[in-house]
Amino acid sequence: MLKKLIPTMMLGAALSATAVAAPTVVTTVAPVHSITAMVMRGVAEPMLLVDPGASPHDYALRPSGAEALDRADLVVWIGPQLEGFMSRPIAALASDATLLTLAEVPGVHLHGARDEEDWSHGQESEQSHGSHGHHDHEDGIDPHLWLDPANGKLWAAAIADALAAADPANAAVYRANAADAQRRIEAAEAEIRTVIAPVREKPYVVFHDAYRYFEERFGTNAVGSVSLGDARKPGAAHIRRLRDKMRDEGVVCIFTEPQFEPRLVSTLTEDTSIRVGILDPLGASLSPGSELYTTLLLDLARSLRDCLGAK
């Protein structure tokens, strides 16, 4: 009995040492948590601060989140344009942690925040990190960067590099996991192109302007948004103009979101044949974890196909 017990005890101690050695990683939103979880697979689990059903734009940090930041070795976020609530807690609680700001990863694809004039004229304001483009809007960049899978692939590598620096013993695991994550994202990207091919040119309207990265990557035909910003309620004049535009453009579908009140959508579609669908940019309906990111992207494509292609 003793001979069997000693190896078991030694194994438990080894596993405990591995757990202690793994860096404590805190992530903000579910897509970022998902990519990080893919990279950390087999080593440890990152912590998610913002539940998928909550908006990061006006999130209130919980005591458990503050405690996690205080213990963090690595914090992974998009940047202050998305998670504005994080700036002060990071400075106060995580000043000793490594901070990985994904919006600043070299090579990341950035788009400027659109206003109503941009929707009218299709102004292009894409830029790569480090260059100077059309960032003259009040809101700066559009912060929904994860909806371009090319950014997701870049982030997997950047997260692996940050983890390897914090935990050299597992560097090879992180980098192998990142390569696998990139393959999975590429496979999802290929499937998305197939799913949306039949409806790619059909015009639609979104609830708020969160999908530019997806639109630009896959060439879908969004022609307007009910709300121009995450926290801005549209005025009556904008709603009138949008209703006219929906009629003139032959809009097929308008999409709500799980986090937002759809009452305005009912106003816009009243006495029309325009269908109503749901797009979920943060994965509110999904379980957090390594599968969420690619599932979220595929679900967007399927939602577009199902509404735009319905008979």
Name some characteristics of this structure:
311 residues, Rossmann fold, 46% helix, globular, 11 helices, alpha/beta, disordered N terminus, single chain, four-stranded parallel sheet
Secondary-structure map:
Layout: H1 2-21, E1 25-27, H2 30-40, E2 47-48, H3 63-71, E3 74-77, H4 87-93, E4 98-101, E5 109-111, H5 116-121, E6 126-128, H6 149-166, H7 171-196, E7 203-208, H8 212-218, E8 221-227, H9 236-249, E9 253-256, H10 263-269, E10 275-278, H11 292-308
Parallel strand pairs: 1-2, 1-3, 3-4, 7-8, 7-9, 9-10
Antiparallel strand pairs: 5-6
Helix pairs in contact: 2-6, 2-7, 6-7, 7-11
Count of individual domains: 2
Radius of gyration, whole Å = 21 Å
Helical segment tally? 11
**Which series of helices and strands comes N to C?**
HEHEHEHEEHEHHEHEHEHEH
> Which residue ranges are poorly predicted, with pLDDT under 50 across at least 5 consecutive positions?
1-20, 122-138
Please identify the structural class as seen in this structure: alpha/beta
How is the CATH topology of the largest domain named? Rossmann fold
Would you state the CATH class of the largest domain?
Alpha Beta
What sort of overall outline do the alpha carbons produce when their principal axes are compared?
globular
